[in-house]
């Protein structure tokens, strides 16, 4: 049976400071429209890094799951999570729980893992009253804008993520690894290049080195692909950071990032990284029913502070292995 939709012709709006926007007429069959436009949309995301589709009228998780399934090869789960998400049928998740009055800084999703989503999908069911945009930033442009000596150091050393799992603050190791079985946790860590140490009180400390710069497996473009700034202690609210350091000490923070050799990353470096991200951020306020597709290797994303209810569903799709992205450091997996 022929498709009820015409041959895809994407008339994208391109304006400075905004992602590419595609306005579509309401069809009453968002999954069917997505299936008919899948290849054209994916090609546009590959070219521009992110595309916002406006007019589909997405309204519930079942419809969103159907649309996500038609736009992707495979929807994946989340490993080594930092904050809980609510899961919905069909591989759809809630947004990461994060205080509404705090910005979620730019990052590439799960860039500290050895297998991460090649594409991120976001569907807005309820737009906030103010703020709350999901900003995007071209990771290749960010890389080109960073100081050459800083990039060279991260290329040589990579970046180090340290985590301390306890029952008092942040996610537990059971939530992050999906099991309370220490043997299974240890097996996962060894297979994924994560050094670990059990503490006398039962807490778990981990260290993992990752590449800060990668090559896109399709286009070959180099990108600043990491969560160095987002997961660093200096991105925390100053009062929160001071409290955590007082209680747990500088080596006992729930998470922070370092240079790959283990040297702390200073507040000045974090401010520099966030400043460059800000200079390259494109944003478009959410409208209820919107769909945003993001190439996770090419494009970082953020979430701005907001007021009022906000419901954005997320799909992590099309897994990519770090080994296929020309990492610049040995991550120690076995």
Question: What layout of secondary structure does this protein have?
Answer:
Blueprint: E1 12-13, E2 20-23, H1 30-48, E3 50-54, H2 61-71, E4 87-88, E5 92-94, E6 104-107, E7 115-126, E8 130-131, E9 136-138, H3 139-145, H4 148-157, E10 159-165, H5 173-177, H6 182-191, E11 194-198, E12 204-210, E13 213-215, E14 222-224, H7 238-248, E15 255-259, H8 267-279, E16 281-282, E17 291-295, E18 299-303, E19 306-307, E20 311-321
Parallel strand pairs: 2-3
Antiparallel strand pairs: 1-2, 3-17, 4-5, 5-20, 6-18, 7-17, 7-20, 8-19, 9-16, 9-18, 10-12, 10-15, 11-12, 13-14
Helix pairs in contact: 1-2
Can you offer a commentary on this structure?
The structure is a single chain. By secondary structure, the chain is an alpha+beta fold. The chain has 2 domains: 18-98 and 108-129 and 285-321, Double-stranded beta-helix (4-Layer Sandwich); 141-274, Double-stranded beta-helix. The chain is 26% helix and 28% strand. It has 8 helices and 20 strands. It has helices at residues 30-48, 61-71, 139-145, 148-157, 173-177, 182-191, 238-248, 267-279, and strands at residues 12-13, 20-23, 50-54, 87-88, 92-94, 104-107, 115-126, 130-131, 136-138, 159-165, 194-198, 204-210, 213-215, 222-224, 255-259, 281-282, 291-295, 299-303, 306-307, 311-321. The strands form 5 sheets. Strands 1-2-3-17-7-20-5-4 form an 8-stranded mixed beta sheet, covered by helices on one side. A hairpin with a 5-residue loop joins strand 11 and strand 12 (204-210). Helix 1 (30-48) packs across helix 2 (61-71). The chain is globular, with a radius of gyration of 20 Å. The N and C termini lie far apart (49 Å). The mean pLDDT is 93.
């Amino acid at each position: 049976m022929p498709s009820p939709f015409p041959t895809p012709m994407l008339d994208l709006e391109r304006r400075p400071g905004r992602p590419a926007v595609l306005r579509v007429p309401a069809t009453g069959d968002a999954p069917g429209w997505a299936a008919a436009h899948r290849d054209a949309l994916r090609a546009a995301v590959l070219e521009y890094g992110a595309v916002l589709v406006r007019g589909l009228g997405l309204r519930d998780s079942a419809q969103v799951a159907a649309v996500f399934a038609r736009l992707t090869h495979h929807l994946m789960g989340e490993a080594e999570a930092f904050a809980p998400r609510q899961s919905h049928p069909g591989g759809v998740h809630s947004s990461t729980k994060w205080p509404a009055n705090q910005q979620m800084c730019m990052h590439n999703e799960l860039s500290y893992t050895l297998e991460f989503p090649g594409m991120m999908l976001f569907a807005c069911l309820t737009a906030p009253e103010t703020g709350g945009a999901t900003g995007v930033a071209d990771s290749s442009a960010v890389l080109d804008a960073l100081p050459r000596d800083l990039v060279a150091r991260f290329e040589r050393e990579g970046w180090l993520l340290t985590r301390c799992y306890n029952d008092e603050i942040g996610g537990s190791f059971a939530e992050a690894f999906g099991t309370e079985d220490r043997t299974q946790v240890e097996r996962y860590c060894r297979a994924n290049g994560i050094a670990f140490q059990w503490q006398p009180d039962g807490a778990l400390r981990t260290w993992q080195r990752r590449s800060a710069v990668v090559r896109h497996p399709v286009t070959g473009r180099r990108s600043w692909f990491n969560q160095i700034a987002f997961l660093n202690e200096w991105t925390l609210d100053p009062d929160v950071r001071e409290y955590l350091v007082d209680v747990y000490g500088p080596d006992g923070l729930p998470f922070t990032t370092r240079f790959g050799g283990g040297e702390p990353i200073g507040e000045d470096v974090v401010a520099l990284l966030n400043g460059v991200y800000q200079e390259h951020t494109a944003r478009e306020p959410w409208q209820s029913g919107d769909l945003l597709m993001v190439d996770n290797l090419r494009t970082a994303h953020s979430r701005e502070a907001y007021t009022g209810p906000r419901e954005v569903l997320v799909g992590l799709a099309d897994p990519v292995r770090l080994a296929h992205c020309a990492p610049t450091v040995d991550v120690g997996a076995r």
